[in-house]
Amino acid sequence: MQELPTLQEIEKVSRIFKLLSDATRLxxxxxxxQGERNVTSIAEVVQMEQxxxxxxxxxxxxxxxxxxxxxxxxxxxxxxxxxxxxxxxxTLEHIRH
Length: 97
What we know:
The chain is α+β, with helices and mostly antiparallel strands. Strands 1-3-2 form a 3-stranded antiparallel sheet. β2 and β3 (about 75-80) form a beta hairpin. The chain is built from 5 helices and 3 strands. The mean pLDDT is about 95. The chain is globular and about 50 Å long.
């Protein structure tokens, strides 16, 4: 029989699902699955103000769902790793089934 996850692991999983439960953050993550983008580009795709997108990106970055790199004055964002998109893809497959 497999051991149950620790309370700390359960809390981390819960935090991830809370982040993914927001439609705006989902749109941002799905946009970044297509490749690295700056805030202006992301805001255009998700049709939101840059300040709102920046706020959501900070939450995603703080929880290791996206990474950022600076090039001059521009910050580019990308998915932290493939696991983030795998979670989204599995969920989309589930609802389409």
